[in-house]
Input
Amino acid sequence: DVKVTQSSRYLVKRTGEKVFLECVQDMDHENMFWYRQDPGLGLRLIYFSYDVKMKEKGDIPEGYSVSREKKERFSLILESASTNQTSMYLCASNQGLAGSYEQYFGPGTRLTVT
Amino acid sequence: KQEVTQIPAALSVPEGENLVLNCSFTDSAIYNLQWFRQDPGKGLTSLLLIQSSQREQTSGRLNASLDKSSGRSTLYIAASQPGDSATYLCAVKGGGATNKLIFGTGTLLAVQP
Output
């Protein structure tokens, strides 16, 4: 079974703090993704990575950065957290063509910025 | 630009009913379509993946169909149970090099005991 884990289920941070959200997958997937999910707006792609040290901006990258130093780990960084970044953050991965691009999600991190 | 729509936004049915959830997309040039389930406050669980060359996929009480030419997919749930209550989302992956999924906004299903 594919497993995607996220470092925290709930996180509360203050405005201006640097925040790290970590995601690990155990199936040697080449592609990893970060989304945020907000009521009425659905899932929006922040960044994705198709290989170690490779990344591409998604639809809403502003205010975020990412890091992929190892294949199994993909980190989302909020350089200076703001209240409008309060959201549910979801990590996902897929194996690309070899896995028919079937996407697997982690349990989510509910981030509150006060 | 691909747009994915799910109707209805919410559905309530009594236990035991068979039901159909709908997903429509505007650009038929898709690579595949995936159905997910999301419980409140949780991540998404993959239910079924249909490749563009396939017409349907089945898993247990779930059956998903795909009509690419008309831009439609349906998720059929047989003999619904209260445990099926969740939000159901569909997502399409475009053809070509893109790795992005385009998600619908989901259907919130409540199965009443």
